[in-house]
Design brief:
The chain has 464 residues and is of the alpha/beta class. Helix content is 46%, strand content 15%. The protein has 21 helices and 16 strands. The strands form 4 sheets. Strands 4-5-15-10-11-14 form a 6-stranded mixed beta sheet, with helices on both faces. Strands 9-6-7-8-16 form a 5-stranded parallel beta sheet, sandwiched between helices. Helix 6 links the parallel strand 6 and strand 7. Helix 5 crosses helix 6 and helix 17 crosses helix 19.
């Protein structure tokens, strides 16, 4: 079995795992995040050869390097084809020209109109397949800042032997995002509106995993971006975009939990040549501060018009720190334990230098976000969502560059109709798939930010 089909923890105290182990577990048992024991490598000629290929075929080429003997090639191919059969655009992630050398990489053509579909539609099918092969049941608990929840429900709702619990911060997601989750008619879907922030919801999920007897008893697992399979699936569109452009590009990525931009680092570690990866944050700028000041410090979470990025603890940053430290699991473990205790980490100079060699960072407030949406609509007639606008504003701050500049456009503007209406004076066109959820009844529980009550709720629903 190749090194790339074996996985290790960033904290170094978990046994090696297979692709199926990683898929079903989400988080490593030592609290770390799974990473390939060694990255697979694609040559420049192989990457150039992706140009003009079907997206599904490129996804198969990349994911097959990780799968090992967990699934046969035919099984992987079948699940990839099924995952993308319902996307609105045959390109799956079309590259749309803006002005000059600027492009939008449109990642919102899946069933829930957000980039999370690209990975979760694959993950859900592979997950169900692995569960069938092994037997048993799984309890999926997902913290969401807006889009992961609906994408997980779209991928896993109605599947046998799986119960899905989604925690979103009450009042801190858009109405459309909330309704996409809470109008699901599937009996195996349970929505919790948590009285707190996304970081509170994420902490509860991590604390549930830390209660190992409970986690084992209910078959607890995660499908948000701490699951490496999400990262692997999201790396694909960096390859397809670069192959289409035939030149190294700078990618500007709206960043919250750091998964989507770390997928760019994953692609680079597999052989992709990119100029820069640019972290674009809203006023929850922990990642911009970490890179620019060298201090990774959680502050108070600000409620913004780009709510999927309202995050002050970026889980996937642990993966970047692990790589930047030379894969020093001992240091990574201590650093993460210190951060969990102090909510602050002074990044050592050698690690910071490695991060800065790969990443740049810019932050944008709500005023600039609205101005950017208005400006893009005025100059091109194109309507963008507020998360994409944060990245477009970061692009403008970077100034002119010779290389292609690619903004990852992560959501359909109609998911954030209130913000778009504030910016341009009229609501964006509403796709039928989103309009439908506005008329359906909602099903959710409003709960306090208390671990014991959430655990009790999960246990009672599983028993029922």
């Amino acid at each position: 079995m190749s090194q790339s089909s074996q996985f290790i923890s960033t904290r170094g105290e978990a046994p090696q795992a297979s692709f199926a182990d990683v898929l079903l577990a989400g988080l490593a048992p030592d609290g770390g995040l799974y990473m390939p024991a060694a990255w697979p490598h694609f040559s420049a000629a192989e990457i150039a050869g992706f140009k003009g290929k079907r997206y599904q075929d490129v996804a198969f080429e990349i994911l097959s390097r990780f799968v090992g003997d967990s699934f046969t090639p035919a099984e992987l191919r079948e699940d990839i084809e099924a995952a993308y059969a319902g996307f609105e655009r045959p390109e799956i992630a079309p590259l749309s020209p803006m002005s000059g050398n600027r492009y939008l990489l449109e990642l919102f053509h899946g069933p829930t109109f957000a980039f999370k579909d690209i990975a979760l539609q694959i993950l859900g099918r592979l997950f169900a397949r692995a569960l069938r092969q092994r037997g048993g049941k799984a309890t999926i608990v997902a913290a969401t800042s807006g889009d992961t929840g609906s994408a997980a429900i779209a991928a896993l709702g109605g599947l046998p032997n799986i119960e899905v619990f989604v925690l979103h911060p009450k009042g801190r997601v858009s109405e459309v995002q909330r309704r996409q989750m809470t109008t699901s008619g599937h009996a195996n879907v349970h929505n919790i509106a948590l009285e707190g922030s996304f970081d509170d919801a994420q902490s509860i999920v991590k604390d549930l995993f830390a209660q190992k007897d409970f986690a084992r008893e209910v078959g607890l697992t995660a499908v948000n971006s701490i699951n490496f399979v999400r990262i692997a699936a999201q790396s694909v569109y960096y390859f397809t975009a670069s192959a289409a452009l035939e030149r190294p590009a700078t990618f500007i990525v709206p960043t919250g939990n750091f998964g989507d931009i770390f997928a760019g680092e994953a692609a680079e570690r597999m052989g992709l040549v990119a100029k820069r990866l640019v972290i674009a944050t809203n006023s929850n700028d922990i990642m911009a501060r970490a890179l620019n000041e060298g201090i990774y410090a959680a502050g108070e979470t600000h409620h913004t018009i780009s709510p999927s990025m309202d995050i002050q603890m970026a889980s996937n940053f642990e993966r970047a720190l692990f790589e930047a430290s030379g894969r020093d699991a001992g240091w990574t473990r201590l650093a993460m334990e210190n951060f969990a205790r102090d909510r602050r980490l002074d990044i050592p100079e050698p690690v910071l230098a490695q991060l800065r060699a790969r990443y740049d960072a810019r932050s944008t407030d709500d005023v600039d976000t609205l101005t950017t949406i208005n400006a893009i609509a005025g100059t091109s007639g194109r309507i963008i969502d507020p998360h994409t606008a944060v990245a477009v504003n970061a692009l403008r701050k970077l100034g002119f560059r010779e290389e292609p500049m690619v903004v990852l456009s992560t959501a359909h503007p109609a998911k954030f109709a209130d913000a778009v209406t504030r910016a341009i004076g009229t609501p964006p066109p509403m796709p039928e798939g989103l309009r439908r959820v506005l008329d359906l009844p909602e099903k959710l529980e409003i709960m306090p930010n208390k671990l014991s009550l959430i655990r009790q709720f999960i246990s009672s629903r599983l028993a029922g």
